[in-house]
Amino acid sequence: MIALRYRETIPTSNLTVLHSDDLQCNSEDVQQIIEKNIGSEVIVSKESIYHELFMRMGGRWTVICREIQNDQSLPVFATRSPLFCSGNNSKVACFAAEF
């Protein structure tokens, strides 16, 4: 069983687990918010993404952003959350997940 908000539970047998090296998002809404708010500065991007996620979707969110330098590989994240997404431009990579 996994606990949801307001102490609801769902059986884990009803969950779909997605495994893919290419999977970056499980929500088009979150993807659009990241694409709209990711910029050239890490802190501004993180705060803008978090603010819009909270205002539009509610819930509790974690947003992590980091600067991309030269040909660095993008960060890799593992999460167990109902909504998540990662995105990047040439300067900043960000990951958001609802908890």
UniProtKB/TrEMBL annotation:
Domain Ground-like: from-to ranges: 22-96
Name of the protein: Ground-like domain-containing protein
Species assigned in the record: Mesorhabditis belari
InterPro entries membership: Ground-like_dom (IPR007284)
